[in-house]
Design goal:
Helices cover 55% and strands 0% of the residues. By secondary structure, it is mainly alpha-helical.
């Protein structure tokens, strides 16, 4: 499954993957330096998330409907 063929309803699963990859990428010492622009870090995070998304089984995660549930899920990431 390609990220470009994903229905709009499954975008929230991609967002969780993007957040998880972004947190890991921003914590790494090399990428945490100020020499690499934030735009490049976000772009690299997006590319890595696009590569990982088709591999992960998104049907196994139940995405909450409330804002508090989403905040709890993002906080757990």
């Amino acid at each position: 499954m390609s990220i470009f063929q994903t229905p709009y309803q499954d975008f929230n699963h991609f967002l969780l993957i993007f957040i998880r990859v972004g947190v890991v990428l921003f914590i790494l010492p090399f990428f945490n330096s100020k020499t690499i622009p934030v735009v490049c870090k976000i772009g690299l995070t997006f590319i890595i998330a696009m590569i990982i998304y088709p591999v992960i089984d998104v049907q196994s995660v139940d995405f909450p409907d409330t804002v508090l549930g989403i905040a709890h899920l993002v906080g757990g990431e």
